[in-house]
């Protein structure tokens, strides 16, 4: 596995999963593994990053921050994330967390879509529709890359999510808690504006 997470966001498996428990395990395992590695890399790299005491010059590419990277930066460096020049390892960690959030987009047969289907089949139409509208709104007011992602995700939504061999089998209390934790990870790692140019 790559130290910055996996790009296995879209999992197309020929045979059906036996039940929603197996579906959840496959959907959540990759993002959680990448998340743990990326947090370690981010903390290690932040400790070696540079804090600027003057604003950066114009036309500099800035990385956006998620709730988690903002919190980690303030905890490790006691600094505003906008004033930090990331060490390469911290950048790898940032990228890993960003990929984790992409993996967990709750749409179609993405990892997040698998987790959503396993947790609640009833929400597999409503949540993707609302999330697509949210991405279009973000793309229109901020990073236009989300408009591209919205177009890609429309294709995923149109493909739908195939049922497992036994959808009636409950996933159990432990996996329900884990599904909530997985979506919390998604919220913590999501970056509304991943890239921006300082004017």
Give the tags.
199 residues, mainly alpha, two-stranded antiparallel sheet, two-stranded antiparallel ribbon, 7 helices, 56% helix, disordered N terminus
By DSSP (H or I, 4+ residues per run), the number of helices equals: 7
**Major beta sheet, strand line-up:** 1-3
How many strand segments?
Answer: 4
* Category by helix and strand content: mainly alpha
> What percent of residues are in strands?
5-15%
Provide the domain count: 1
The sequence of SSEs as H and E is: HEEHEHHHHHE
Shape: globular
- CA gyration radius, whole angstroms: 18 Å
Distance between the termini: 37 Å
Helix content: 55-70%
Provide the residue-averaged pLDDT: 89
Query: Which stretches are poorly predicted, pLDDT < 50 over at least 5 residues?
Result: 1-11
The major β-sheet equals: 2 strands, antiparallel
What does this structure look like?
The protein is mainly alpha-helical and 199 residues long. The chain has one domain. Helices cover 56% and strands 5% of the residues. The strands form two sheets. It has a two-stranded antiparallel sheet with strand order 1-3. Helix 1 runs antiparallel to helix 3, helix 4 runs antiparallel to helix 7 and helix 5 packs antiparallel against helix 6.
SSE order and pairing:
Blueprint: H1 20-46, E1 50-51, E2 61-63, H2 67-77, E3 84-85, H3 88-103, H4 111-119, H5 126-141, H6 145-159, H7 173-189, E4 195-197
Antiparallel strand pairs: 1-3, 2-4
Helix pairs in contact: 1-3, 1-4, 1-7, 3-7, 4-7, 5-6
